[in-house]
Amino acid sequence: MKQLVIRVLWPQARQSVEQWQCEYCLLPPADGEDSQVLCLPEAFQQAAVRQLEGDMDVTVLLPGELAILNCVQLPARSQRQALQALPFVVEEQLADDIEKVHLSVGHRLDDGRWPVLVVDLAIMASLMDICDQTNLRLKAIYVDAQMLPASNGRLSILMHDDRVLFHSSQAAAVFDHATAASMIHFLLGESVVSDVQIQFQAENEQQALLAQQLSTEFSALGETQVAMEATVVPMLAASLLPANASAINLLQGRFTVRQVSSRLPWWQMAAAMALFLWIGQLALQIGSGGYFNYHANRLEKSAEEQYRKLFPDARHVTNPRKRLEARLLEGANTAGENSFARLFSSSVQALNSLPDHEGLTIEELRYESEQGQLELELKASSIDQLDQLKQALGKLGLSGRISSANDSDGSISGRMQIGKEL
User: Fold this and answer.
1) The pTM is what?
2) How far is residue 68 from each of residues 225, 245, 341, measured CA to CA in Å?
3) Integer Cα distance of 19 and 22 in angstroms
4) Would you write out the chain's pLDDT as a tens digit for each of its 422 residues?
5) Chain CA centroid to CA 155, Å
6) CA–CA separation, 207 vs 311, rounded Å?
7) Which of 6, 137, 255, 331 has the most CB atoms within 10 Å of its CB?
8) Which residues contact 86 (CB under 8 A, 6 or more apart)?
9) Are 399 and 421 in contact (CB under 8 A)?
10) Where does residue 41 rank: exposed (0-12), middle (13-18), buried (19+ CB within 10 A)?
């Protein structure tokens, strides 16, 4: 992912934040696109436009002259607890009022101490105000000197123009060429240094001489290894990024910026889940509707076929249920004792009167109007059930004759003819 770097230039201490000059550059640089020097609001505005065009991190680099790095003992186990305890611990160590500074804490060091960066609160507030005005979302605000790699026994020195950036595990600072050597040794004190990395601009003779001086002085310590590197990179930001893992992001506490996450907010996830469930329910209902409509059509067709078997003289069967109800009503009003209605209702009455009619069902029926006889295709659990139905029909004044009874998979498939008992 590309990132925009806005590096505040130095010196401009007497100017307001809105008048600060900045180096505005894209890393890695695009073809034909060089760094620009813009005032801070304009740089933020351009960065906001680029951020809208695509996902891009925006980092601000402040001059090390604006910050103080210190290491303190804090009664804390996590970075959050350290940030809460920080004001009470460092208040007596600061020359300024604690209410006028912004404190940021880094990761706990091996010796148990916590690195702390102190910057002017008004500067941070002004920076964030300009961010709000331009709708810019910052990824981080770093101090340039602290971006150099450093650890126990290892320090880094980087020379850029007339500034000398210095970073060790104990301190981060910026000096001019005249005082750099003495101030670096003063900050180190009695600390043991095992590894020194010195970077300078190859075309700058003054930097080359200072680098050689520092290399000679550290090499004289005996066990110190010195690595010198002549660079040709014109942009300081390119030498400092990617950020050192131990660098402290000043966007902490009240200035914390919530970064955009690839995950959806909970309410969007809930809405998406509700929409998914609704679509699933709709699809289920449509599928169920189609399934039951298909089987209803099959039952309708089966009912038409049964109706035609009962009444072969029927020509048009549009609604077999209503037509059957009409036939039953017509039969009920007919005086004939062997009408379909009487035979069918009596057969059902006889079947329901059996003490145990579980498993006894009417599979198919036919009515012969000329003979006044109803023929039932039955399925029973045993031959005794058929005989019990026959006796129950006799009690209702009907004759029941079992014309066939066959064993089929543990049940009895039988045929019975029902008519008026002679």
Assistant:
1) 0.60
2) 28, 19, 106
3) 9
4) 678 899 999 876 567 899 999 999 888 777 767 788 999 999 999 999 988 887 788 999 999 999 988 888 887 778 788 878 878 877 777 777 888 889 888 888 888 888 889 999 999 999 999 999 999 999 999 999 998 988 888 899 999 989 999 998 888 999 999 999 999 999 888 888 889 999 998 889 999 999 999 999 998 877 889 999 998 766 788 778 776 777 899 998 889 887 655 455 677 778 888 888 889 888 888 988 888 888 888 888 887 777 777 677 776 667 766 776 666 666 555 544 457 777 778 888 888 888 877 878 888 888 777 777 888 888 888 888 888 888 888 888 888 888 888 887 778 888 888 887 64
5) 41
6) 115
7) 6
8) 72, 74, 103, 105, 114, 116
9) yes
10) middle
Q: Which residue has tokens 């109706």?
A: 307
Both tokens of residue 325? 């109800």
- State the residue for tokens 């500074």: 101
Both tokens of 412, joined, read 């009895």
**Half-sphere exposure of residue 242, counting CA atoms within 13 Å on the CB side?**
4
Q: Are strands 3-8 and 21-27 parallel, antiparallel or unpaired?
A: antiparallel
Domains of the chain: 1-143+244-260 (3.30.420.380), 149-239 (3.30.420), 334-420 (3.30.1360.100)
